[in-house]
Amino acid sequence: MKIIIYILMLMSVIDCKSQIIENGNPQYSQEIESQIKRITENLKVRDQFGNTYKNATLEERLAYYKIPGISIAVIDNGEIKWARGFGYKDVSIKEPVTQNTLFQAASISKVLTAIAFIKLKEKNEIDLDADVSLYLKSWKISSNNGWQPKVTLRQLLSHTAGMTVSGFGGYSIQDSIPTTVQILNGEYPANSLPVKVNIFPGTRARYSGGGFIVAQLILEDIFKLPFYSVMDSLVLFPLHLKTSTFDQPKSESKHQLNATGYVLDYQPINGGFDIHPEMAAAGLWTNPLDLAKIIREIQKGIQGKSDFISSKSANEMLTQQNTDATGIGLGFWFYQNARGDSLLFTHAGGNDGFQSLFFGYKNLGKGVVVMINSSNDYELMYELIRSVALEYNWPDRFISENKKFVINDESLNAYTGKYIFDKDFEIIIKKDSSKLYLEMQSQPPVYLIAESDDNFYCEQLNIKVTFNKSDNIINSLEIQQDGAGNIVAKRIKND
């Protein structure tokens, strides 16, 4: 096995030169260029209260968020339609982002880690349901006061192992870099806490990058090679992802492709990027084109048309592994409660200076990947994805625009009156000129718009108001503010 890995590594190094030379944005057919133009000139921008949307250009939104560059790849009708970079990968020298520019994928690294293990399972070289102590040689999961937890790889890859440490901060190029065992133990020079089990494994989902570092060590212990070398052989080389790498830091040839990471006001990270020895959880350098190839391979696997992954394995990765409401597969997450043909798998990632997000439909041959070289805001990526979803007729549009519902003038009287919250905190509901208003303490009244019989929203604030009934009589109201922090007020008087 180790000999094969070394051969594949050598072939990968030799083979990657041609793609690095082709380091530009290609031109597509007139039809596709028109699609790109419509998408990038009609981003769907949500207002500050989340009630309405307006159009804006990608150029305008990059400037608004102070994000230097962005890269996109789109899948439609079962093929990668296009990939293109916009803006700058380095502001100081005005070097543009291209389809080959490398970004830190951060937590999307976990998807590829899960794929590596599913490939080993296909070869019967690993059991996802066995106690991981069978595979760990250089480190063991610690006991808790004499109680020794048993953890499986399936639990590690689905965030259900009960393990601690959500994420990792990375290291500057001047820092000493810890080994995988030092990270797990929380020992110097590691800058994170020890990874351990502190709730019952298999009982609930809780995001844990720490669990993926345990998975990283399993591969290192099995193959007695660095994690990035194993990933080259199991995932990156077989999928012909010649520019992507888990190496920390990257080789010089690939280093020339990377974007500089930026934080607020176009401030570059010291050295251009952080180093992430927590490779399985956050160490991947890649681009949207390569990630789109992975999404497409999973979709082909579901159809039984992939030479890389079997239909059984692809379906297993997209099967919910946890028992609670949040949908998590092996490495993948699921968007909302979608199932069947409309199942939409996803993952996001964020390291200092970089953010990324992808979506792919299990059975519809559609998807998108977006990456930016900034920590500023995820919302730009959603603005772009909304535009892609509309252009390519996705079932999900990522738009939660409120609908207006007509309630006749006489029926509005049923909601009016005085409501009391927290003993003496008054909320007044009143009607004026066939409109319903909410007045709270000494604040000016706000206009309430119905979206159903008993549910209202406000265009002036990010609030939802629900009127509660008993025996068809309204006796209280509930105000949800900015998605949380509910106020429940009891009705005490009719006007």
Short description:
This protein has 15 helices and 19 strands.
Strand order of the largest sheet: 12-13-14-15-16-17-18-19
Per the CATH scheme, the topology name of the largest domain is Beta-lactamase
Domain count = 2
What value does the average pLDDT take? 90
**Helix content bin:** 25-40%
Architecture of the largest domain in CATH? 3-Layer(aba) Sandwich
Assigned CATH superfamily of the largest domain: DD-peptidase/beta-lactamase superfamily
Structural class: alpha+beta
How would you describe the shape? globular
Task: List how many beta strands DSSP finds.
Answer: 19
Strand-residue fraction? 15-25%
Q: Give the biggest beta sheet.
A: 8 strands, antiparallel, barrel
The CATH class of the largest domain, by name, is Alpha Beta
Radius of gyration: 26 Å
Task: Compile the SSE list and pairings.
Layout: H1 2-15, H2 17-21, H3 30-40, E1 43-46, E2 53-56, H4 58-65, E3 69-76, E4 79-90, E5 95-96, E6 103-104, H5 109-122, H6 153-157, H7 180-185, H8 209-223, H9 227-236, H10 252-255, H11 279-282, E7 285-286, H12 288-302, H13 311-317, E8 333-334, E9 344-351, E10 354-361, E11 367-372, H14 379-391, H15 409-412, E12 417-421, E13 425-432, E14 435-440, E15 446-450, E16 455-458, E17 463-470, E18 473-481, E19 484-493
Antiparallel strand pairs: 1-2, 3-4, 3-11, 4-5, 6-7, 8-9, 9-10, 10-11, 12-13, 12-19, 13-14, 14-15, 15-16, 16-17, 17-18, 18-19
